[in-house]
Amino acid sequence: MDYRIEVLTLPVRDADRALRFHTEQLGFALDVDYRPHSGFRVAQLTPAGSACSVQLGIGLTAAAPGSARATYLVVADIEAAHRELGERGVAVGPIRHKASVEGWQGDHAAGVDPLRRDYASSFDLADPDGNTWTVQERGFHGAS
Questions:
Q1: Are 72 and 121 a contacting pair, CB within 8 Å?
Q2: What is the pLDDT of residues 75-103, one digit of tens each?
Q3: What are the tens digits of pLDDT across the range 41-66?
Q4: Radius of gyration of the chain (CA)
Q5: pTM of the predicted structure, to 2 decimals
Q6: Cα gap 128→114, rounded to integer Å
Q7: CA distance 89 to 86
Q8: Cβ neighbours, 10 Å, residue 15
Q9: Does residue 140 sit in helix, strand or coil?
Q10: How far apart are CA 140 and CA 114, in angstroms?
Q11: Partner residues linked to 44 by β-bridges
């Protein structure tokens, strides 16, 4: 039996602001924006190439806005993703890499992993409510 993660819920304070951030700045596609009345709204968005979506809105969760931590986005080119999101106005943290891949103990060094190993390079960002994302590189193949 397969168990797939389909949707993650992000707790937000302002659904309209969060929707603009995720579509205009992160580039997520808006799949649905359903609001049958003023006390309930669900917007589902999907990052390009992802099988998993995120939902945000009103009346979806009792979690405090901004309490989601370290949700991962995976990209093939960490430098290109960092540049692209920065150009869209996203406050991106510096790129870092695992200081030691074998026996890694949570320590990082500045910049991209010199060997561009899968899962070794990453950077962080946060949405307007403070939910945090980690963008991580996997599958780098160099310039085409």
A1: no
A2: 999 999 999 999 999 999 999 999 987 88
A3: 999 999 999 999 999 999 999 999 99
A4: 16
A5: 0.92
A6: 32
A7: 5
A8: 18
A9: coil
A10: 12
A11: 32, 55
